[in-house]
């Protein structure tokens, strides 16, 4: 049983990592009062840029290129929604469509190429712990980076002045502006940060998880990342739990196919997405919980300084 459980859990952490990055980025964006539905497009742009960077500068360079590309992709969205006051969901959908098309066009050059990937970073001593060691301490360094990013963001949002300002802007931009905070600049920064995180998530897919470029390789993960923010009720800890839940469902359906479960492969592949929808439906029934944590100005335009 343990021999089967260890690889499932270990691969679950790797499969969930792009969702952790993209979900945390969208959480910060929404905490500022901006809802960006372009995560899928930004992940794809980050994936193709990360693969191109990985060919020249390795995985670290690829992740940096993905972060930069994701942030740059978020800039037009920020300009249209924050400076011109366009509808945020519609503009986010346009960004996703643009990202799908741009990544497919740019990625044509990389279709036949691949990267060497990344070997696990085994932590001496801890990796020998039964069950926990092979699962938590024999991962790639990018997985460890996602944990550090989560810890930093959770601390920043809950314990620092910057986190308080971000939440204040998301709750009441009028009040934040009245006491002297540059609401638009803060929202620009949060939106670009969310784009950078989505770009890192996409670059992880193309440089580490499956070190090659495939058109539409995110396979809906950007939409799942947006859904996870709601599932988490805008709390980082719950978002991590949701990301690993989805990652686990993805890995289990792959193992089910390998074990010869007599169900159509298309149905098994849809299981993680169906599970996500079911969870979101159950969460949305608790309106009091959602209203308690929902940023009050989420999605509402605000034109000011």
Automatic annotation (TrEMBL):
It is found in: Cell membrane. Its main location: membrane. The chain crosses the membrane at residues 6-27, 34-53, 59-80, 92-111, 141-158, 185-206, 212-232, 239-257, 263-283. Pfam families: BPD_transp_2 (PF02653). It comes from the Bacteria. InterPro entries: ABC_transp_permease. Keywords: Cell membrane, Membrane, Transmembrane, Transmembrane helix. It is a multi-pass membrane protein. This is ABC transporter permease. It comes from Uliginosibacterium aquaticum.
């Amino acid at each position: 049983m343990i021999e089967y459980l260890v690889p499932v859990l270990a691969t679950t952490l790797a499969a969930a990592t792009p969702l952790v990055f993209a979900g945390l980025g969208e959480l910060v964006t929404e905490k500022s009062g901006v809802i960006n539905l372009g995560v899928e497009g930004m992940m794809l742009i980050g994936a193709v840029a990360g693969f191109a960077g990985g060919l020249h500068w390795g995985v670290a360079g690829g992740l940096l290129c993905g972060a930069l590309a994701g942030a740059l992709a978020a800039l037009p969205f920020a300009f249209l929604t924050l400076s011109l006051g366009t509808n945020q969901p519609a503009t986010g959908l346009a960004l996703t469509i643009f990202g799908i098309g741009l990544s497919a066009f740019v990625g044509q050059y990389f279709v036949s190429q691949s990267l060497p990937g990344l070997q696990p970073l085994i932590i001496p001593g801890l990796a020998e712990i039964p069950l926990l060691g092979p699962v938590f301490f024999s991962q790639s360094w990018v997985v460890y980076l996602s944990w550090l990013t989560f810890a930093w963001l959770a601390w920043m949002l809950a314990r620092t002045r910057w986190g308080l300002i971000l939440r204040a802007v998301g709750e009441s931009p009028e009040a934040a502006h009245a006491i002297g905070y540059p609401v638009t600049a803060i929202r620009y920064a949060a939106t670009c940060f969310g784009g950078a995180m989505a770009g890192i998530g996409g670059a992880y897919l193309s440089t580490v998880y499956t070190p090659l470029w495939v058109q539409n390789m995110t396979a809906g993960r950007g939409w799942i990342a947006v859904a996870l923010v709601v599932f988490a009720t805008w709390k980082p800890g719950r978002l991590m739990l949701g990301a690993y839940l989805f990652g686990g469902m993805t890995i289990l359906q792959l193992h089910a196919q390998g074990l010869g479960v007599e169900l159509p492969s298309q149905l098994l592949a849809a299981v993680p997405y169906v599970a996500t929808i079911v969870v979101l439906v159950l969460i949305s029934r608790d309106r009091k919980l959602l209203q308690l944590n929902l940023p009050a100005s989420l999605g509402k335009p605000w034109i000011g300084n």
